[in-house]
């Protein structure tokens, strides 16, 4: 966390937002890091209770946007995984180890530009989730979810949805099953929507799976969602994943497309799509040589035929 300093990376993210000024932004893995000193986890108090904020990614980013006079506000936030574990800090005079507790809280966020009206925010945590054993009596749950708003852009109202699904795995393993279940939950909820749906996020799922399979990308296409990257005029691989963990390799090569923006037209006809991968060029790195994120971003403009 310290090496991949988000304070400097937020400046790079804000630069990209300033360059393109999108109407709406879907953010995943918007983290809050808190600390408790000394910790009490090893004494058996395992419920997350650290309160001293070390890093608040959302606050850091919104401050960077405000410093550029960019009018963006938080439209909706869903709280996902909330995990606290002990961190070794040293040893006391008797040689016994000492611990602080570190708490990580994950969020997905929608930011909206100031001239865009939003209504009906909705947050949801998937019932299907990974559970990891810490010991025989303690399990950690990695909760994921989605967030949605109605957004009125240039006189037309859309349902804008942002999510981050579980990582994929081998066909049929627990990760793949939970990922598929999460996508099924999401699509079943969105099936009740009567507006055009813009569905954005890190789906941890790439094109190329067999029709009818339960991987998230195929589920979306089978449900009538259009992959906006395919609709763009110019063809490119669209890879968004992934930079190295330390985010400092200027020669890193992205190798898969797992971040998508889908559209469910709901009776509208798509006239034109412009789409671009951003945050993937060396000039996007911070002055200290860090990529803005472990994934590149995707920016999409959709034009519909007038009704």
Q: What is the CATH superfamily classification?
A: Endonuclease/exonuclease/phosphatase
Q: What letter string, H or E per element, gives the SSE order?
A: HEEHEEEEEEEHEHEHEEE
Low-confidence stretches: none
- Domain count: the total is 1
In CATH, the architecture is 4-Layer Sandwich
Give the end-to-end Cα distance, rounded to a whole number of Å. 49 Å
> What's the level 1 CATH class?
Alpha Beta
Radius of gyration: 20 Å
| Widest sheet: strand ordering | 5-8-9-10-12-11
Tally of alpha and pi helices? 5
Average pLDDT for all residues: 94
Secondary structure: helix percent: 10-25%
Would you count the extended β strands for me? 14
Shape, principal axes of CA atoms: globular
| CATH topology (level 3) name | Deoxyribonuclease I, Chain A
Structural class: alpha+beta
Q: Largest sheet, if any?
A: 6 strands, mixed
Strand content: 35-45%
């Amino acid at each position: 966390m310290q090496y991949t300093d988000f304070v400097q990376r937020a400046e790079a993210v804000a630069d990209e937002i300033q360059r393109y000024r999108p109407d709406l932004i879907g953010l995943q893995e918007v983290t809050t890091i808190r600390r408790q000193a000394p910790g009490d986890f090893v004494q058996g108090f395992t419920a997350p209770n650290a309160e001293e904020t070390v890093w608040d990614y959302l606050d850091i980013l919104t401050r960077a946007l405000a410093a550029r006079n960019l009018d963006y506000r938080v439209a909706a936030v869903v709280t996902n995984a909330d995990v606290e574990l002990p961190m070794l800090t040293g040893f006391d005079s008797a040689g016994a180890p000492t611990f602080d507790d570190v708490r990580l809280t994950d969020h997905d966020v929608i930011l909206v530009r100031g001239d865009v009206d939003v209504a009906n925010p909705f947050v949801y945590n998937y019932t299907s989730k990974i559970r990891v054993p810490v010991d025989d009596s303690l399990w950690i749950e990695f909760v994921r979810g989605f967030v949605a708003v109605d957004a009125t852009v240039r006189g037309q109202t859309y349902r804008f949805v942002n999510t981050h699904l579980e990582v994929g795995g081998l066909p049929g393993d627990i990760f793949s099953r939970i990922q598929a279940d999460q996508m099924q939950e999401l699509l079943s909820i969105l099936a009740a929507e009567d507006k055009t749906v813009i569905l954005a996020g890190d789906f941890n799922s790439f094109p190329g799976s067999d029709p009818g399979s339960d991987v998230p990308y195929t589920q979306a296409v089978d449900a009538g969602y259009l992959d906006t990257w395919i609709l763009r005029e110019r063809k490119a691989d669209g890879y968004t994943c992934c930079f190295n963990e330390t985010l400092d390799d200027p020669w890193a090569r992205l190798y898969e497309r797992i971040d998508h923006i889908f559209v469910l037209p709901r009776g509208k006809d798509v006239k034109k799509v412009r789409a671009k991968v951003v945050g993937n060029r060396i000039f996007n790195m911070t002055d200290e040589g860090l990529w803005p994120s472990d994934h590149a971003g995707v920016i999409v403009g959709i034009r519909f035929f007038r009704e």
